[in-house]
Structure formats: C-alpha cells, structure tokens
Amino acid sequence: MMADGTMNATTVDQRNHGHFLDAPKLEPGITRFWLIRHALVEQNARTMMYGTMDVPLCPDSLVAQQPMYEALARRLPREARWFITPLSRTRRTAQTIQNAGYGARGLTVEPGLVEQDLGEWQGLSHDEFPDRLEEAPHCFWPISASETPPGGESMETVCSRVGRTLDHLAQTHVKEDMIVVSHGGAIRAAIAHALKIDADTTLHFSIQNLSLTILERLNGSWRVVTVNELPGI
Q1: Chain segment 54-70, per-residue pLDDT in tens
Q2: Which of 57, 122, 147, 150 has its CA 20 to 30 A from that of 177?
Q3: CA-CA distances (angstroms) from residue 23 to 128, 211, 233?
Q4: Where is the signal peptide (predicted)?
C-alpha cells in the first residue's frame, strides 16, 4: 500500500494471485476436482433406466475411444488423488485412463458421488419408464428434479448428497488435485453445488461420456473452470 492509500503493482499482483484464470495452465496448490463421467455402457444397458445398477461398459467403445483415454491421460494432473464410485463402470474407466499413459494409481471408492438411485424403477425400459412417473419429466432428464422413485432418491436429494461429499473432500484434501470418475447425474449435482443453483436448473447442463468438468474451491467459494470438456477435441 502506498502512502496515498493506493496499491502498487506488486501489492495488486499478490492480492490477486491464484484468483484469476488468465493462462491455460492451472496453478498448483488449489483445491481442485477433475470430474470425469464414466465411459459408454454396453448396448443392452442403454435400452433401460439403469441408475445405480452395476452395468458393464461397451467393449467396442473402449477400443474405438482409445484416443480420448490417451488425451485424458495427458490432460490430468500427475500428482492427484483418484476417486471412483462403488459401480464397476467408474473403476473400469479409471483403469483404462491410467493404462492409456497416465500410470497406475490407487483408487478410493467414494459412495457419496454415485449416480441417482431410481429405486424400484431401475431396469425399466425407456418406453415403460414414463408410465410410472407422477410428475412431468424434465426436458433434459427422464424424471423431474423433485420426483422420488419408490425406494430411490430425487435429483434434489442427489444434489444434497453430492454437495456434502464435495465439501468433505475439499476440507480433507486442501490444496490438492482430486480426479473423480463418476456419473452424469452426480456431476450435474456437483455443478449445482458449485453454482448454488437448484436441481432443476443443473439438469440443463450436458455431461457426455468421458467428458471432463473441473471445479475449484478457493477460500470457501467454488469456481467452475470447465464443463463437459471432451478430451482430444
């Protein structure tokens, strides 16, 4: 601070360091989540509402999308903690990224970042599913954000669950990079938490398979760096 109350260039630079994204390289020492949606599931699973069912990945897609795995392996930070959900499709996706050039790392299972549980409606075909709904579906999701399937959870509940989990991880791993292989619904819920928007609004985000979403937590506040970034494109 200068005698006249103004700030010199050095003071301004120190005050703003780490708070602006003026360069393509992300600075280290920030609590940062690298959220990846799992790869495409196999064809039979795609005909139904699988939710938290443990369905396998599409074997043909694993081969055809190898360049995307290699691009993710290059894009992700080298010193990072890896998290997956209890479902095998996230573990297989994480292992394929690591095998594509990242290198083997330990995988921690985090149940709080799993997909929306559709309860008794899981396994229904896309044609059968609408007949069970009591509310009109969301225009970009098969079910409204507020409807709770029997024995399952609403998207509003998912947003609360994922938000609590992100806060806990951010507090536990301050200034660390965390790579999370998760699910479309859970990543939308993470965006809702970061932006403080409701569940209905966050369902307007597109989250494609193998896409990357980056969130940062800075001094208790959240920032969205990128959403639905497709590797190698």
Answers
A1: 999 999 999 999 999 99
A2: 57
A3: 49, 21, 19
A4: none
